[in-house]
Amino acid sequence: MKNLIVLFFILVFTSCIPVKIAPKFKNQDYKIMQAKKFQKHMPRETAFIFKDPKNAGDFYNYINKKFKLNGKDVGYNVPFQLEGQILYLSYHEAERTDESINLPLAVIDAKRESNGNSRLFEGNYSNRTGHWYILLTVYDENIKNCLRDKHLLKAKTIEYLKGLHQEYLTTQNYEELLLTKKS
To answer: pTM for the full model?
Structure first.
């Protein structure tokens, strides 16, 4: 039993302890869920969520060029047509972080400080890595969320958003979108 306790303390003092972990979507590269459950300050609406590996502002530029918005109302109620109906796309960007505490460094500095020495690792007690996500919502003309279970266009909307997501990830130059047929 003593060996187990000693092993436990060795593991605790020689490793980083995760405090926050950014979500990872299993089996697919997106998730459909309530935005408020994903991040507290988001609206209570069902959203299509995916991790954004590109630089800040790239999704804005993509939407602006794809729908030829000329910088007006990009991200809010962008109209598009699906199955003969006009739907409205909105998006939000959200950051989720991975955070961990480096307990051994804090213990070493505490011991050094108690001996009258200066700290060596101050400012390195924790690690933080940010991950950005895009949250897409789609509404019909009756202001009904198209991603909700009972909506008639749910499956078609999801397919459209998956295509939009793939096009965003594979397009390097957003000016190319001006040359393609608007979908």
So the answer is: 0.73
